[in-house]
Design goal:
alpha+beta; three-stranded antiparallel β-sheet; 19 helices; five-stranded antiparallel β-sheet
């Protein structure tokens, strides 16, 4: 047995103190058989005192001295060691080590119990080491997450993988101590349970692989604005760990998405917009086709008063006059005469209005275009980018633009399409009556 070998080595290195039950028999005149059993609690109490005293000395003197020293430094990472109580955890190793070295000398008469106590003390040391390593990994997680280089990387996922490895290795070592087997014996047994392990850790393995792919291809970072309709997620990424990605939506709710879903499902990352020179506006105004018409002289004179299109109207009048000069005199058919349309002039006005807006990034695509006519009219799409990328400010700029364009359409004798309401249907029956009343008034006058 491994425990017996350890005991033999310790017994040779540290000779016995010879605390046997005979001193009870000699001093108290107790039967040797009874003295044998009374001696054991006394010796165990001595071991307990050794452990308590060594822990108090380590905790009160050494650990407190280290804490005071670290608190005086200007560095911040050592404060994290104190916050995570790294040295407080390590203080438990000293009593366990002293117990291991003193047990063979104190419990000479109880070799079997001595071996159990040594094994227990070694397990305590392993548990403390595992506990300390996990705390150190948490410190590294905090430090690396705050670093500009790793701030947007899924560091937490890698730390969680290391945690699993630490627990796995620690568990094997503890089992090897309890059962007296080599750690490689358990590793061989694990090979036969590969299928079960893969099934148990399926999500963990998928999440780890997804975290690596997300990091290598720079797909998602902490702080990115993403949209994932399948999971009803639309907001900023709060954290990326081994199993889940937390997203805080704009309504302040939090959506948890499996990490591997970012590899298997589609999502939209708005980082490109955030890093670009502007945020896009893409919205259409639906105009009634029946309100389109050719511009007469009165309309053109009115349009010349608009600063944004005055030069355009004057230039077009020269081009149209030159083009129409080749036609037959007195030609009045509008089909043969080249002329401007109210929708065309309005489109130019809308484009010049965007170009003159200081909040629009004209270095990026800026245009006003006609889309395919629909049953709701002809869409006139506004396509441009604002300098402001913050959602609230962007929406204010967009609203100001459409407030103006929707209101000024009537100046171009254009009508914006809208579905008829109940009031419109009620007024249908009143139209003849109104016409009749108007006719009566005209006849009376």
């Amino acid at each position: 047995m491994k425990q017996s070998k350890i005991m033999i080595v310790l017994a040779k290195k540290y000779p016995s103190i010879n605390i046997d039950p005979s001193w009870l028999t000699d001093f108290f005149n107790i039967d040797p058989r009874i003295a044998y059993y009374i001696n054991l609690p006394i010796l165990l109490f001595c071991l307990f005192l050794i452990g308590i005293v060594s822990w108090l000395i380590t905790k009160k003197l050494i650990v407190n001295a280290i804490h005071k020293l670290f608190l005086k430094t200007k560095m911040t990472w050592d404060d994290l060691l104190i916050e995570k109580k790294i040295f407080d955890k390590l203080a438990y190793i000293i009593p366990a080590v002293l117990v291991i070295f003193t047990v063979p000398s104190i419990l000479v008469e109880y070799p079997k119990l001595s071996s159990y106590i040594v094994t227990l003390a070694m397990i305590v040391i392993l548990l403390v080491i595992i506990w300390t390593i996990i705390a150190l990994l948490a410190v590294f997680d905090i430090i690396l997450s705050k670093s500009p280089i790793f701030k947007d990387k899924p560091i937490t996922s890698y730390i969680q993988v290391l945690n699993i490895v630490v627990y796995f290795v620690g568990g094997i070592l503890i089992l090897s101590l309890l059962l007296g087997k080599s750690p490689f014996y358990f590793l061989g047994a694990m090979g036969a349970m590969t299928a079960i392990l893969l099934l148990i850790f399926k999500d963990t393995i998928l999440g780890f692989v997804a975290s690596i792919q997300m990091s290598v291809y720079d797909m998602v970072r902490v702080g990115d604005w993403i949209a994932m309709p399948k999971y009803d997620a639309d907001g900023d990424v709060m954290s990326i760990n081994l199993s889940t990605v937390k997203v805080q939506n704009w309504d302040k709710t939090i959506t948890t998405i499996p990490t591997y879903a970012f590899i298997t499902d589609s999502f939209k990352n708005w980082r490109g917009m955030s890093n670009s020179g502007g945020r896009r506006i893409k919205r259409a105004i639906y105009l009634k086709v029946s309100s389109f018409c050719f511009c007469d002289n009165q309309m053109l004179e009115q349009f010349k008063q608009y600063t944004l299109i005055r030069d355009y109207i004057l230039q077009k009048e020269i081009e149209i006059k030159k083009s129409n000069s080749s036609l037959i005199d007195n030609e009045s058919n509008p089909v043969n005469i080249k002329s401007l349309t109210n929708i065309g002039v309005f489109r130019v006005y809308a484009e010049n209005y965007l170009l003159s807006n200081p909040k629009i990034n004209t270095e990026m695509t800026t245009m006003v275009r006609q889309l395919d006519p629909t049953s709701q009219g002809m869409p006139l799409e506004i396509y441009c980018f604002t300098y402001e990328k913050e959602w609230e400010k962007h929406e204010v700029i967009k609203s100001d633009i459409f407030d103006h364009l929707l209101t000024i359409t009537s100046q171009f004798q254009l009508e914006v399409f809208e579905e008829p309401t109940g009031r419109d249907f009620r007024n249908i029956g009143n139209v003849p009556t109104q016409k009749a009343s108007a006719a009566n008034l005209y006849s009376q006058s």
